[in-house]
Amino acid sequence: MQGVDRAAQAYVDAVNARDLEALVASFAQDAEIVDVSRSIRGHDAIREWAGNEVIGGTLRVVSIAEDRPDGQKLLVHWAPAGSGGWRAHYDFTVGGGRIVKADLQYA
């Protein structure tokens, strides 16, 4: 098994560093995030979502659940600020070295 994809790792590192701009930069300009059932598309929407709901939390990769040529599904432990957190599947589709889609679902 390989390690975590570089773009996905950039997202994880940005969350833990509380670096909003680095988080946004890990995504392609027209990327989409599916956060359980909400669709968030493009850098401006991703910046707003992450600033309100992600930055301040912690994210730890537990394991790589699936490796694909176009990305990975990771089992993570996500803990928003002030919570004990929970496990989730973060499925990253990558193109051109950036995340083009992130599907974030409860595990």
Automatic annotation (TrEMBL):
Protein name: SnoaL-like domain-containing protein
UniProt superkingdom: Bacteria
Stretches assigned to the SnoaL-like domain: 9-93
Originating organism: Nonomuraea antimicrobica
InterPro entries noted in UniProt: NTF2-like_dom_sf, SnoaL-like
UniProt xrefs under Pfam families: SnoaL_2
